[in-house]
Amino acid sequence: xxxxxxxxxxxxxxxxxxxxxxxxxxxxxxxxxxxxxxxxxxxxxxxxxxxxxxxxxxxxxxxxxxxxxxxxxxxxxxxxxxxxxxxxxxxxxxxxxxxxxxxxxxxxxxxxxxxxxxxxxxxxxxxxxxxxxxxxxxxxxxxxxxxxxxxxxxxxxxxxxxxxxxxxxxxxxxxxxxxxxxxxxxxxxxxxxxxxxxxxxxxxxxxxxxxxxxxxxxxxxxxxxxxxxxxxxxxxxxxxxxxxxxxxxxxxxxxxxxxxxxxxxxxxxxxxxxxxxxxxxxxxxxxxxxxxxxxxxxxxxxxxxxxxxxxxxxxxxxxxxxxxxxxxxxxxxxxxxxxxxxxxxxxxxxxxxxxxxxxxxxxxxxxxxxxxx
Length: 373
What we know:
alpha+beta, single chain, Elongation Factor Tu (Ef-tu), domain 3
């Protein structure tokens, strides 16, 4: 029997994933990856000498529906008990400091961070496979909505595809997974739609069947993102100018960490017509605002480009998705040396934010992606 280590978040998707893997004949080990900020005390138990186990008996309540909290750990343990699978919770709090530093520094640099992509790249899949090897597992699995397909034509490699349910598709946040790891990953959710998963959870009497989907960044448990940045960097907002696209001062802001490109609400300047944040200049500590047409971008530059398929060495036509909920748009991707690339869209895109990921698709297949400069 093949052994798989499943990342259990305490949500309905990864819980049903455990059942589906069991149904497919796998020996499932549940693993909760504790990466939030509420403290949980470590303890060793006799369940497994290899993995440090966390106490989850006293969940910490939060007014936000995030993930990776002590409450989620307790939910995951209850599901594991219900399905009769081994369960372990690992404390990644120290390693997760790197993610929180990245988040704060990106905002203070005038960029819009994407901690979910970075967490997948830096921690979740790498650490998940690291621990899977320690327990002799053949595969790792998560509750992400995505699919994998074996290709005879492409050097007998695996390809990452969008989920059948495009409304729930999460392949965008997975583009940075190491290409060599794809053959070791299972995505049980990829062929299902969310209502089917809810119905399955109810039929199995899983305690998380009606639990809401996580909507928040796990380490921002109270207040705003800007509050978190200021607390993380022990600072007060640094006041600066709000200017129009011609550089004329229209007012003042309380810190660039309060803004992202494309933002409309919260500018607090009445100009008669809607205005949006079009640029954040961290060096001059100012926020540039303009009309919607000022957000239009036909060409973007990327860095730290990675590939899940054969790398493009010149130019090719691909669909490019610039945000999680963005509809991928046709473009010409031209690669440069040192992991850089230029993207030229057929039609202008709105709300292009430096710091976000741009992911390349060939139909449903994730080809690669990079980070907007």
